[in-house]
Design goal:
Blueprint: H1 6-19, H2 25-28, E1 38-42, H3 46-52, E2 57-60, H4 65-74, E3 79-82, E4 88-93, H5 94-105, H6 113-142, H7 153-181, E5 188-195, E6 201-207, E7 228-235, E8 238-246, H8 250-260, H9 267-278, E9 281-284, H10 286-291, H11 294-307, E10 330-336
Antiparallel strand pairs: 1-4, 2-3, 5-8, 5-10, 6-7, 6-9, 7-8
Helix pairs in contact: 1-6, 5-6, 6-7, 9-11
Bound molecules: zinc ion.
Length: 337
């Protein structure tokens, strides 16, 4: 196993700085009135994290470049992360973070149409922020090489992949922001799957579903690709998987429907696999992580390792159901139409 060289350390530091660039996305889409200071905005409410934390910590796979570079040598692993540092992105100013998300942060999560819209909006904002910064970081590095230099190739490829995602995500973010500004919450669609168990895992993300859960092709990664939001949260102190999309987004609706049509006893396993496939913001109660089989831990960590390759594209059987990972006992499935 080769150690990380000083040149590689410098590269990682420089690249991470580009990935951490600060911006209030609300201003970018005409929100106005930023208070200037960019905060570490939580993607999963702190009140939710507290419910699965042990002594103020959750278990998660690190997402920063330096630990990822180390794990690529030594193997991917989950570790303790303080809840103050988990799932924060610098993509909103203090004012907008507070005012925009007050209905999510200051009230109980009951999954009203307004709360569903805000969850969807914030997951898309995270995607815009992450993809936009990844696009810029790759472009900055790529510019250092001549177009004929083979060393430029991986940066150019990463630039194209992230750029395409950023364009699609920005379109959806703009549409979501208009819905919020005009309080047109009837445009949100959702599938809410409730379970009867002690919460052990939380997750937040937005992704472009290429296939549904049984492997039917839904769409390609185009500039117009549809996004779906996926959250695993707690409602009334019980787990719930929440899919959100905007009216008219057929690939997203078909993904959610195919998920909900699977047998109740398989839904937990499918939900956890999807969270590990797509979500940079997935955390667990340590006790639960240690209680699942080593085979499942390896399989889930492999998903994260694959997802960390920019060019990775899920194939049609990315969700496999061979043996159950866990069963939180599905109580009900509701569609918000
Ligand atoms: Zn702002």
């Amino acid at each position: 196993m080769k150690p990380i060289t000083p040149t590689q350390w410098n590269f990682l530091k420089r690249y991470q700085r580009a990935l951490d660039s600060k911006e209030c996305l609300s201003r970018r889409f005409g929100g106005g009135d930023c208070d200037g200071r960019i905060v570490h905005a939580h993607m999963i409410p702190r009140s939710q994290l507290m419910q699965i934390a042990e002594q103020g910590h959750v278990h998660a796979v690190p997402t920063r470049l330096t630990p990822i570079a180390q794990m690529k040598r030594s193997g991917f692993t989950a570790e303790e992360i303080g809840i103050g540092n988990f799932s924060t992105l610098q993509c909103f100013c203090a004012r907008h973070d507070k005012t925009l998300f007050a209905p999510l942060e200051d009230a109980a999560l009951t999954l009203t149409r307004q709360q569903l819209t805000l969850l969807h909006y914030r997951a898309l904002a995270a995607e815009v922020y992450i993809r936009g910064n990844a696009e810029d970081a790759a472009a900055n590095e790529g510019r250092k090489y001549l177009s004929t230099d083979p060393q430029r190739e991986p940066f150019y490829e990463a630039f194209q992949i992230h750029s395409l995602a950023a364009i699609a995500a920005e379109e959806h973010l703009k549409r979501s922001e208009t819905i919020i500004n005009l309080s047109r919450y009837d445009e949100i669609r959702a599938a809410i799957i409730r379970f009867d168990a002690t919460p052990v895992l939380l997750s937040a993300c937005a992704f472009r579903p290429l296939y549904d859960v049984i492997g039917t092709k839904l769409q390609n990664f185009s500039e117009e690709a549809a996004y779906i939001g996926m959250h695993i949260l707690t409602v009334d102190r019980k787990p719930a998987i929440v899919f959100t999309w905007l009216k008219g987004q057929t690939p997203s609706q078909r993904f959610a429907k195919s998920f909900c049509l699977q047998p109740y006893r398989e839904l937990t396993t499918l939900g956890v696999q999807t969270a590990f496939e797509y979500a940079e913001h997935t955390c667990m109660r340590r006790e639960w992580w240690m209680s699942i089989t080593k085979g499942w831990r390896t399989l889930l960590l492999n998903r994260i390792e694959m997802a960390n390759r920019a060019a990775s594209v899920p194939d049609e059987d990315f969700l496999s159901f061979e043996s159950p990972l866990d069963d939180w006992k599905c109580l009900s499935i509701d569609f918000v139409k």
